[in-house]
Amino acid sequence: MQAISLVKQMGTAALQALYQHTADAETLTVNETKAEFTGDYTLVTFTLTKPLRKSPEQLGSEIGEWILANYSGVVKDFNVIKGFLNISFQDSYWLKVLESSTDAKYGKAPANGRKVMVEYASPNTNKPLHLGHLRNIFLGWSMAELYAWCGYDVMRTCIVNDRGIHICKSMLAWQKFGHGATPATTGIKGDHFVGDYYVKFENALREEAQPLQQRLLAGDTNVLHTEADKITARAIIAKLSDETLDAESLKEAEADLNDLARNATVLMQEVRSMLLRWENGDEDTLAVWEMMNNWVYDGFDETYNRIGNSFDKVYYESNTYLLGKSYVEEGLQKGVFYRKADNSVWINLEAEGLDEKLVLRKDGTSVYITQDIGLARKKHEDFPMEESIYVIGDEQNYHMQVLKAICMKLGMPFAKGIHHLSYGMVELPGGRMKSREGTVVDADDLCDEMEKVAAAKTAELGKVDDFSADELTSLYQMLSMGALKYYLLRVDARKRMVFNPEESIDFHGVTGPFIQYTYARIQSVLRKSLNGAHLPALMKPADIANLEKQLLVKLEQWPGIIEDARREMNPSLAGMYAYQLAKLFNGFYAEHSVAYAESEEKRIFRLHICALCAITLRNALHILGITAPERM
């Protein structure tokens, strides 16, 4: 049992024995004792004053006396400051923490027999990976590691969006403007090559749509092809003539009119025709689709290898988009779904706080939720997991609520274990990224830039003169990825974040390289002190200094931090812990010598502290997908 849980257990036992008051241990507030006070952990008594009709000070004193009398083998002393009961543990308790100083997997729980699937990345095959994908991938990888460290059998999966009209846009642009060019003939990475044609399509579409939009603004709706679109356009044009219209509504109306103009272009007619040919299995269309997708997959794999990512299984939307229709029929028979007069199929989720949701169009074709129902079932058949985590941006919160609600109503065995790790989008200082306009931070370009900065920063330190060229390349890769991953993971996943290039490549302060440097520093201390020998048996020192105690308290928290981060689906807890531990170690090392300790007992004791700090930092970085360099 960890110290914080032990304090809660002692507190509840004291309340029962002294006042016959039964309390849930989790309702007690226990914090690490503030540095300016004496103690290891603090039990807050203010919330107990009302039910027990005693002052906070009296409660603290009485509970402290009881704990000291009944847990003398663990508790050394206590003091009360106002309503705060500060408890000091026996030195022997903290020395036990160092029993893990040779355990490379410190903090890792034994296998629990439970399975979890983590789905993340979900790229489209019409563009390369960008900064937003990186946050998603790093979150997914880290969540998979957290579950693995908590004893789960984990499968990492990805669903690739390899079909649809957006894919056809790149294909049509290549046919029109490519003139037979390939990634091989141009020297352009495959995903970038295809992504360039997606942007070319959007540029050509914008150019063709602009005069149509101007004609619509002038009131000429004959540029549209259907009567329904013409009626919609007239309504928008009438709305635009309203002088009382606010700026926001005006902007939305102009955007709606622009969409009508875009849909009326020859290019959009051609791309819709291509999609129809693809769905009908046209061999020539499928050949172009397969060729261009393979270019993209080669590019994706190169980026994945560079950032240290891999999947256990990849699903493709082209193989799964028809799944789910059979479950709609099953749901109709069970009364879960209902059919409207126009033959469309719906579900009413108002009782769940949602609304009516379409699951099959009137022509019998699927919508996204239908596909996702089928894919969820397919995933469970492939890997019968108790929990299924979807790492998807917060703009899909409603969609994920609907998916889980439908799976629950269909009685699917995995439904209760569906979890949505909803994360905030990454924005630029100037606003949101837009793929169709090419205003994204490309993942490969960002990695290149980070490596250049890593090289420059390392050169400034001037401590790598004995590194070979290959060693330097490896170090720059580790530092750049450490900086990037830590920057994107140090923030609570639920929060939106602004990507600031200058801040992201700062190698000081709350950064990955600071933690990496601390790890390498400890390894240097151990190499010099041990000179290739094994860590000597732990020797009990005459006393434990304040900074030594603080490190032991922090190290003892690590297994609980992992579990908290997993349960809260928040890898930033592990990230901030690693920074706090690194900062604390550097303070300790500046104050206390290891090689020239005041006694042999102290030297060995501090070596064990160094060893466990190194192990814990390495494991924390590993969970974040960051490599810990042995020297810098």
Tell me the layout of helices and strands.
Blueprint: H1 3-19, E1 29-32, E2 41-44, H2 49-52, H3 56-70, E3 75-81, E4 84-89, H4 91-97, E5 115-119, H5 131-149, E6 153-160, H6 165-177, H7 183-186, H8 190-217, H9 227-240, H10 247-263, H11 266-279, H12 283-307, E7 313-316, H13 317-320, H14 325-334, E8 338-339, E9 345-348, E10 356-360, H15 368-382, E11 387-393, H16 397-409, E12 418-423, E13 426-427, H17 443-461, H18 469-489, E14 497-498, H19 501-504, H20 512-530, H21 546-556, H22 558-567, H23 572-591, H24 600-623
Parallel strand pairs: 5-6, 5-11, 6-7, 11-12, 13-14
Antiparallel strand pairs: 1-2, 2-4, 3-4, 8-9, 9-10
Helix pairs in contact: 1-3, 5-22, 6-8, 6-11, 8-10, 8-12, 9-10, 14-15, 17-18, 20-23, 20-24, 21-23, 21-24, 22-23, 23-24
What does this structure look like?
With 632 residues, this protein is of the alpha/beta class. Among the domains are: 3-89, Arginyl tRNA synthetase N-terminal domain (Gyrase A, domain 2, 2-Layer Sandwich); 164-282, no CATH class. Helix content is 55%, strand content 10%. Helix 14 (325-334) crosses helix 15, helix 20 runs antiparallel to helix 24 (600-623) and helix 22 runs antiparallel to helix 23. The longest helix has 28 residues, at 190-217. The chain is globular. The chain starts with a helix and ends in a 9-residue tail after the last helix. The model is unreliable at 432-438 (pLDDT under 50).
